[in-house]
Here is the input.
Amino acid sequence: LDVSGHGLQAALYSSALNHIIPALARLSRADGPAAFVRELSREFPMNEVTGQYFTIQYGILDLQEHVLRCTSAGHPGPLYLPRDGEPQLFAIAGPPAGVPELDEFEEISVSLAPGDRLLMFSDGLVEALDKRQEEFGAPRMIATLSHGQLPDAVRRMEDEVNRWCEPKKPPDDCTAFGFELAAG
Here is the structure.
């Protein structure tokens, strides 16, 4: 979840959403991620005065079937790192949440095998700029994350993004959430 803007107003909006989402999510699991984000988008429309909106990537992981169902509203799609295969960056970045005429969100389903890893991340990681105004980009992110245990790979990516932006810090939120499906 990422709320547009900075300061107190954005912090309060983010806090409200973070308190409401878990309660609403329990009520809508059967409908799936896209339906949930569509409902959330309708309940929290973009503020027409301030232009404030939010983006979100939301997924439901079925621990019995090892299937992740996921949707995105303004965030990049998740990065799938199979144990035995090529990384795949899913292109499901739908419109930001809260725009009434743009509230149809695509949903993907990913079957996971033991050793597979999946990473959800904010656009601040791939859009981080160096001093030449070149983005860090998805290929660099994938190359950095493709090797080693996930916690170490995420720390390595954080270091790489910070080095990429030197002498400044990344201007946007750089957030990542990942997991690996354990064997047996």
